[in-house]
Amino acid sequence: MDKDIIISGVHLQLTDAIKQIVHEKVEKLFRHDEHIIRIRVDLMHETTKDPSEAFIAKGHIEIHSPDIIATATSDDLYKSIDLLIQKLDRQLNEHFKK
What we know:
The chain has two helices and four strands. The protein is α+β, with helices and mostly antiparallel strands. A four-stranded mixed β-sheet has the order 1-2-3-4, covered by helices on one side. The model has no long low-confidence stretch (mean pLDDT about 90).
C-alpha cells in the first residue's frame, strides 16, 4: 500500500527537516494500514494567540468509517507535532478496539 501523507503549513515555512520529522512520526500510525486511506497534517503558527498555544498541529485521518480528527497546541512546533501524533494514535487504538 502506498502511504498517502499530506503536509501543509499555514503562516509557517515548511522546511525539509519539518517535513521529514512529520513523515517519520506519521509512519507509526500506519500500523493500522489496512484501514487508513490518507493522513493530512496541517501545521500553523498563530502570532495572535497566547504564546503557549502559538503552534498548532491538526491531523485528519481518512479511514473506511468516520474520519479521525485531532488538534494539538503548544509553544513549540515539534512538541505540537508529538502531541498530535499521540492523540491520533490513541484515537486509532480506541476506534479499532470496537
